[in-house]
Amino acid sequence: EGEEGSVAKEEAKLEYAPGLENVNEDLSELAEKEIEFLPITTKAYLYLSGTPFKALATGEFIEEQIFNWTYTDEQRAKEEFSKQNPRARNPYGALPQMRLLTYQMPDELLAIASSGEFDLNVFFEASGKELLAQFKHKNDVQKWLDIIRGGYAPKSIEHLKTGTRPPFPYSDVRLLPYLQHSFWFMPNVAACHAMANLLAEKQNTFWHDYDVVVSAGASAGIGLDALPPVRKAVGSGFETKTIVLSCGKLTTGVTVPQWSSILMLRNLKSPETYFQAAFRVQSPWSIKNPNGDNPNEEEILKPACFVFDFAPTRALRQLSEYGIGLSPSEPNPENAVRDLVSFLPVLAYDGANMTQIDAGGILDIAMAGTSATLLARKWESALLVNVDNGTLRRILDSEEAMAAVGRIEGWRALGDNIIETIINKSEKVKELKNKAKDGTLTPQEKKELTAEEKEYKSKRKLIQEKLIKFATRIPAFMYLTDFRENTLQDVITKLEPELFQTVTGLTVQDFHLLVRLRVFNTEQMNQAVFAFRRYEDASLRYTGIESHEGLTHYGLYNTVVAVE
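Above: the chain's sequence. Below: its structure in token form.
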């Protein structure tokens, strides 16, 4: 998270006034401070999040504490209600379906900003302030503006030859109604101003019909202060045409019903940030009782909304991670992505044709373009291990399990009674919190409560780290073994048990026991093994090597899925 964290901090500086950079605090930090900052006692806390992946990944909440209502749930409810009640007003009817359209740029533009993958931040690099802001690759950005409105001559000749004309955003008659009010997500403040300046130049007469609002930098206002100029430009939404340029403002917690499309013109590494911004355009736009004679009638003005992306590999990687994140208990990642794309169709332009891509294709593109670092992150996820009290108790109650965890590298350094300490301290904290509800907690006990809670949380984190460190040895084992169609469980326990012990330090019996006690999360392991298999094959295929000819199935951790 180092590089992305520093980028996020830089963006925060641009977004907030001095001293307000840390307004959005982490859930885990809030959890530790809740007793200090709330002068009331309560039975429970409810944490709300639009994209809760990080909160889930840190293991702050166990399954029974999590309730999800996602985009997929709402679109499924919309579809099922229409089937069951064809004549009734659908309460979900105004929620538009999102579509993702990705575009491969021509080779001459890819050459400007590509190191294996098109880098939008490099392509839209700019310098200067406000009216003096200019793009570094201004000629090429001008070509890009011509491409998205279907006016790029070299491509027009190709389309005549092939007899196909792909749907570019600002040229296709089916897309134009959704681009009357759009949001362009730029890399930084300079790029926002440079784009506004370029759109205003004499040659860009097509774009002069649009009211361009720059919502970036201190001059645009802090937080919600940036919203009134946008609302004023949009008006009712019928007689106006707008483009909002932003590099972070108005991408969370803002509703502008008339926004129907977003152009992703920057690199975003996390699916949370990507979809937080994307879902700005998914807010409903409808008129209740349009004729004044039927309160149950609703005219839906925005049945669909669009995300346009010009870095296909990156976009599909975000989508696959988002789909998998929405279905943490689904063992087969392809099913998780299939569920999402059944309600979020993906069309990709490969330079010649625009085709709809299925879940398998999305994962193929996403995995072939991934890096070893991204793959390693899957094996460093807190989701791979369970450290709740129930699991710790199961370890504590088994002599064999205690001996097994004792053989994990670095475990002995944690101390002999660490599991017992965590359970006892968490129970003591629970007892003190119950006492707090009655209002009988002394100041000394309040201090004790905070100290005990901090200690047991930090000790639980230490255990989590040791278990994750063990999990990161498993990819090394997979590299060294040559079995692909067998489940990893079978490879570990039956085919190469000695190799497993050499690489990880645990015997097969040890590992088997810990899996049975649910110390390791098998659903997450299936996903991590699946990512490994796809990446391994895609990487070798890219170099012209067919690693395992005739391979028909991938063995995951404890299940098998077809390659096709």
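The CA atoms of residues 252 and 276 lie 6 Å apart.
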